[in-house]
Predict the 3D structure of the following.
Amino acid sequence: MNKQIIFLITGILLLIPLVLAETETYQVNQNVDLRFICTLNNEIPSAATEYNITINYPNGSSFINNKQTTALGNGVFNYSTYFKETGLYKVQMFCWDGTYSFSDEGYYDITPTGKIQTSISNNPILIILGLIGIGLIVFGVIKGLSWLGFIGSVMFILLGVYTMIYGFNNTIDLYTRGTALVFIGIGIIFMFASAYDWAFGGNDE
């Protein structure tokens, strides 16, 4: 097996983004209760009677357009919904009491697990699969053990499948799916190369 491919795999892993911005985070396709506090005249609780919100999808299109929330009392309002796609949603908020008004905006980071991950180190499964895959392939090439390369290739395929489902740092987009396909493709290439060498020409002990 070509050692240059090993360096290519290592380079791909190093290109993975290490840090993503932290925001308020919820899980995709899960019912959530969004809570809002109206601070009219810097008073909490305020005398606000209505609180409306507008939320846009990550691509900027409208998800919730100027919908009225439910008053819970003491200036707190609630809106129940679920987010159908992962990504960064922008929310615009507006409340009033008939005389005074208050507006604000913020963001929701919708992820597959609903957890905040600011670094690839927060995802041990991704790291474990990658390191095991690289380690087995490199060791298999150095020692001429094709069966180790075969197992390493399986690890890379599992890495690609995991990345396809969960992405990087809980972000799923075309970039992460494309990288997942690269992992799977590399795994398949090594799998066939290792299997052929193992069956027909390997120097396995």
User: Anything to note?
Assistant: Confidence is low (pLDDT under 50) at residues 2-22. The chain is about 40% helix and 25% strand.
